[in-house]
Amino acid sequence: MLASPRHLWQAPAATVLAGDGPRQLPGPWRLMLLGDGSPTRHLRLLTGEPVAIDLIAMEAEQGDHPGAPAEVQELQAPLLRRQVWLTCGGTPLAWAESWWNQTEAELHLQDRNQPIWKSLTQGRSELFREVDGLALVEADWLEETFGYRGPFWSRHYRFFRSGTALTVIREVFSPQLETWLGSTLRQELQRSS
Question: How many folded domains does the chain comprise?
Fold first, then answer.
């Protein structure tokens, strides 16, 4: 299990949407980071390649949750933590970690190599995604795998069904996405924070 990346800057999604963040994000990145669509679907559409899920780890989360979003406290223990790389054409474009109640994880994550969105929407179940926060993060292992220097854009959100939080998910995106979405000002934001 990899340690959660270190936050250099973070803000609630509402703050960024209101334009109160340190800088305005370019439109395509606002859609990617703050939209309620599926990132695996977005990656597929951007690259034209299928998204492969490379499972890093999926194991019981012990005690406190260092580095986890505050919303993880809303989930009923015992918890499970899952980490994956999302790759297109062999290129890692995102890293994600998610926290689940263990019973919910067993119910919804039967195919551990399938995207969470696909697992949760089988049978066309009603689902609601709420983006809770945006951050710039860093970790040596992200730089090594992405092949870029940090910081990296990250977001975290919750999936709800019938008003109850099912999972909390954090995603970190590779700067390789600038090929399709344009520059993100991540370096400038790091200097201004």
Answer: 1
